[in-house]
TrEMBL record:
Species annotation: Shewanella mangrovisoli
Known EC number: 6.1.3.1
The protein's name: Olefin beta-lactone synthetase
Domain AMP-dependent synthetase/ligase: start-end pairs: 54-451
PROSITE patterns for the chain: AMP_BINDING
Length: 613
């Protein structure tokens, strides 16, 4: 079985069949040439909750291109060369954009991690990635020193501290043990007489210099390592190639209709990088990108208004928060986002209620586009809000969540549920229309491997000999309908196979099951788990149990009466018949970023501890 190894992903001799001409930065170069003084990036900064304290830092395309050139030169002078790996832990800022494009230009591989994944997972990610360099804000460097991140592999350090002077600068250097980005930039400056940029970034004080000779890579050559959040399992490093980035840019242009000159409210760092590559300005609001649920809606509304954003990228939790804020304005009038012509929601399925509420702020006909995918393969499918609203009844009746049709160039197949590895694709693996199984995808934006995770790669990838590429097993369950739409039925690991007498009796799927119980007015959300109970003769059996989180805004019936009503609902649908156990949980454990992915594994442990026999 073919594998993508480090030896194939370094700076070695290009493959004969693929020219070495790929680099996502070519799009930035084109924009800098054709629309040099158009806005590329704007970063909102604020203190407290007052709108009066908001300030904005900006870069146009020519400045972003030149500053990333300057940083690329400085990185090389600091000892970083093509093929090296560099952890990048920098908050969304002008430096974040300039640094990321500089790394791509130099052929240095950025390693991107989600700080919200937890200290233990972060350390494991750094062990696996074995980075050569660590580029981060002071807080990240202090954590690196205290917790031993990258110990044994990191040889180059850069502190992105906003270039403080005097005592603050000295203290920053002492605490981080790393030279600042501004320092290494100044040390590589060739002239001090050129015109200086007015933007307030670490590269702003560096004189202009020659254009950086951008690294030209194979389309399948490793461009970045993006670690999954770990919200549905152990974080894994996904190997991204420039070919994958190119495919994502093409999809955003063709399938989502994003054009030059647009302005995007970018609430997710990775997506914000696509803005300049699309000739679209990325407007970064003042918020913690790892905890979007904590964002101040008024700040986001202010950024949209100031820059007349035409596009918004949000996850379901932020979609819900902004929608509610739009209803609760001081003037008591519904807030309107008149400039917005497209909203993209991704990360987890958004609820129909959240979409309907948010849509009240939009002009008639403006869609909320729900995207399905994962770090390993994004985007895969898409459905607009007007069509999604027509699927409500099917979803409430246990038919799963419709996530739309495959985007151009993507193929979606459904295979039988199995934990076994599948070395090679065969068309006989396909299930029929309407049959629930594991979702398998292929396309130019689908990753080919995990970094230094051979076992995980083998489990998730199926080699397609005919197409000479890997198909990716999403780990999600679903089915295709007769019109080619994909319906999600939950994670494969979250299904419950009930047993009696040691024999399998029925399979329950998380999303169809939970959506049925969520129709009860007192239920905020529910979660399907499996518990072990003693069966006849003392044998261990698996039974389904539903954990319930109540809607605290409503007065609930007594739990015994609620359980009786839920049992009555269960018997009305084939998907839920046989479910007789329910437990009320005060507050479901969910992922930090999306506030939507329920940690069912934790709930299962809790439910087991509450169950007797």
């Amino acid at each position: 079985m073919a594998r993508v190894e480090d030896a194939q992903l370094d700076q070695g001799t290009p493959a004969v069949e693929q020219a070495s001409d790929a680099n996502i930065c070519r799009h930035l170069k084109q924009a800098a040439h054709h629309i040099p003084h158009h806005l590329a990036v704007a970063v909102q900064q604020g203190k407290g909750k007052s709108l009066a304290n908001l300030t904005y830092q900006e870069l146009d395309f020519i400045s972003l291109d030149k500053q990333s050139d300057a940083i690329a030169f400085a990185l090389n002078a600091h000892g970083l060369t093509r093929g090296m790996k560099a952890v990048l832990m920098v908050t969304p800022s002008l430096d974040f954009f300039a640094l990321t494009f500089a790394l791509f230009k130099a052929g240095i591989i950025p390693v991107l991690v989600d700080p919200g994944m937890g200290i233990k997972n972060l350390k494991q990610c750094f062990i696996e990635a074995a980075p050569d360099a660590f580029i981060g804000i002071p807080k990240a460097h202090i954590a690196r020193r205290l917790l031993g991140w990258g110990k044994g592999s990191v040889k180059h350090l850069i502190n992105v501290d906003g270039n403080p002077s005097g005592l603050a600068g000295t203290l920053s250097r002492l605490l981080t043990g790393a030279p600042s980005l501004a320092t290494i930039l100044l040390s590589t400056a060739k002239s001090s007489t050129s015109k200086l940029s007015t933007a307030k970034s670490s590269a702003a004080k560096l004189p202009e210099q020659a254009e950086y000779p951008m690294a030209l890579l194979r389309h399948d050559e490793m461009a970045a390592i993006l670690f999954t959040s770990g919200s549905t399992g152990t974080p894994k490093g996904v190997v991204y190639s420039h070919g994958m980035f190119e495919a994502q840019i093409k999809a955003l242009k063709q399938d989502y209709g994003i054009a030059h000159g647009e302005r995007d409210l970018a609430t997710f760092p990775l997506f914000s990088l696509f803005g300049p590559a699309l000739g679209m300005a990325s407007i970064v609001p003042e918020m913690d990108a790892s905890k979007p649920i904590t964002a101040n809606p008024e700040f986001l509304f202010a950024a949209i208004e100031k820059y007349q954003c035409s596009n918004i990228f949000v996850n379901p939790a932020l979609l819900e928060r902004l929608g509610r804020a739009g209803e609760q304005t001081e003037s008591k009038k519904q807030h309107k986002l008149s400039s917005v012509k497209r909203v993209i929601s991704a990360g987890a399925p958004a609820t129909i209620a959240s979409i309907a509420r948010f849509s009240k702020m939009l002009c008639d006909g403006v869609p909320v586009l729900n995207s399905y995918g994962a770090t390993e393969s994004l985007p895969i499918s898409m459905i607009a809000s007007d069509e999604l609203l027509t699927t409500t009844q099917t979803t409430d009746n246990g038919g799963g969540i419709c996530v739309g049709r495959a985007i151009d160039g993507v193929s979606i197949e459904i295979i039988a549920i199995t934990e076994a590895d599948i070395p090679e694709w065969d068309n006989g693996l396909r299930l029929n229309v309407g049959e629930i199984g594991e979702i398998v995808v292929t396309g130019p934006m689908v990753s080919q491997s995990y970094y230094r995770r051979e076992k995980a790669t083998t489990a998730a990838k199926i080699w397609d000999r005919e197409q000479q590429t890997f198909r990716h097993r999403m780990g999600d369950l679903g089915y295709l309908d007769y019109s080619g739409r994909l319906w999600m039925c939950g994670r494969k690991a979250h299904r419950v196979d009930a047993t009696q007498g040691g024999q399998f009796v029925k399979r329950y799927y998380s999303i169809p099951t939970e959506r049925i119980f969520n129709t009860h007015p007192n239920v905020k959300r529910s979660a399907l788990v499996g518990i072990k109970v003693k069966g006849r003769g003392g044998a261990s059996e698996i039974e389904p149990l539903i954990c319930i989180e109540l809607d605290q805004s409503l007065v609930c019936n007594k739990s015994a009466q609620l359980y009786q009503e839920l049992m009555a609902i269960a018997e009305q649908y084939s998907q839920t018949q046989g479910i007789r156990r329910f437990l009320i949980h005060p507050d479901f454990p969910v992922d930090v970023r999306h506030n939507a992915k329920i940690f069912r594994e934790k709930l299962a442990v809790w439910a087991q501890s509450q169950t007797k026999g």
